[in-house]
User: Fold this.
Amino acid sequence: MAPVTVTTTGPAPPGDPMLYRTETANGEQPSVGDLFHRVVEGGKAYAKAEVNYYKTIGTERGKALLNPLILGVAALLFALGAFGALCATLFVALSAVMKDWLAGVLTVLILGAIAGVLGYLAYTKGKAAAGGKA
Assistant:
């Protein structure tokens, strides 16, 4: 292979995508500080690219989940409305056979007992899932 003579025209402007030169304008090898600076700048550029990539992925997934999220919230609101109707129906049914204040107290006790049982089940299953003994 024949030797090649390279002449430099000066430093590349900052941000130029041109490959880094392996020699300085005087023909000397770059210093360790210059090489370290290049490595750090390359690492920063790589990290920024990774962050932008994951931001883009997260934004796309977020946009894809927006409509199902809206529909799920609407479903929860309708389920809450149905639960309110169930509570009102229980009160009306009990008030037909007893005094209204007693029907109200009994409705609260029944719904409180159901909530207590469900809460206890959630507590025991959560404790078991966390590694504790249930």
Notes: Residues 32-126 form one domain. Helices lie at 32-95, 100-129. The CA atoms of residues 18 and 55 lie 28 Å apart.
